[in-house]
């Protein structure tokens, strides 16, 4: 039976591209959801088997909504990760005489897409107000539905094929090396294509703040020559200045080394929660 894979809708988001890449060759049906929380909740309450959510962007950093919901609200393992190149474009409703940039009064997009295009907006559209919406494709759809308004959306070039839109300007992101990491979460294991690269993500909670606590956590990995690719603190939401550490270990799970490091960290009084061990892929094509 075909299983469902929730993605951030409507059609035309970057998350949909990631979802379609994950679904490739699998009996999975991508279904749109209105926001990240709804995707994770739908998987958590068994409405769909899997979900794809953005996790981190190379310009703007962590998607806090995803990280926090995975930590605090649901207990869903990460099953895979895909890094996609991201190209942001300024899109306007299709008309015979395209709207000049100086006439645009309002720019709609997802906060991450706006953040990736700050310089472009400041230099080229200082007169426009910014409106944050749930996804880049929702922005594109909204602009296409109001062709008489001097509005623009920021999103993928694919949107000009999905909605009556045209490019006002292509490639407006402030840095060319723009990538977003998306994660696949699910309640059931999924047979993923083989990857040379594997990651394990853990959450470490320190018992209390004492000198060298984080140093001791990192030492457990360092002397075992275990490579970490990310360490990030997120608030526990229990007190000001109280944090979890999210650590990505970029290495095939070793049956002795990694559990040994976790046991050493637990022995100094820290809690270790595993968020998943999963393959990761880098997608080369741009859009
Ligand atoms: O709005 C979209 O198209 C999304 O898929 C979300 C999202 C994000 O949250 O980071 C995904 C990739 C880009 O970085 C911009 C927006």
From TrEMBL:
Ranges for domain Prephenate dehydratase come to: 4-187
Record EC number: 4.2.1.51
Q: Where are the transmembrane segments?
A: none
Q: Which CDD domains match?
A: ACT_CM-PDT, PBP2_Sa-PDT_like
Q: Residue numbers for the site described as Essential for prephenate dehydratase activity?
A: 180
Pathway per its UniProt entry is: Amino-acid biosynthesis; L-phenylalanine biosynthesis; phenylpyruvate from prephenate: step 1/1
Keywords, ordered alphabetically: Amino-acid biosynthesis, Aromatic amino acid biosynthesis, Lyase, Phenylalanine biosynthesis
Query: Pfam families, from UniProt?
Result: ACT, PDT
GO terms for molecular function, please?
prephenate dehydratase activity
Entry's Gene Ontology cellular component terms: cytoplasm
Domain ACT: from-to ranges = 202-279
Entry-linked SUPFAM superfamilies:
ACT-like, Periplasmic binding protein-like II
Q: Which reaction does it catalyse?
A: prephenate + H(+) = 3-phenylpyruvate + CO2 + H2O
Q: Name one GO biological process term.
A: L-phenylalanine biosynthetic process
Do you know which PANTHER family this protein is assigned to? PREPHENATE DEHYDRATASE P PROTEIN, PREPHENATE DEHYDRATASE-RELATED
- What is the name of this protein? Prephenate dehydratase
Native organism is: Brevibacillus invocatus
Q: What is the lineage of its organism?
A: Bacteria, Bacillati, Bacillota, Bacilli, Bacillales
Originating gene: pheA
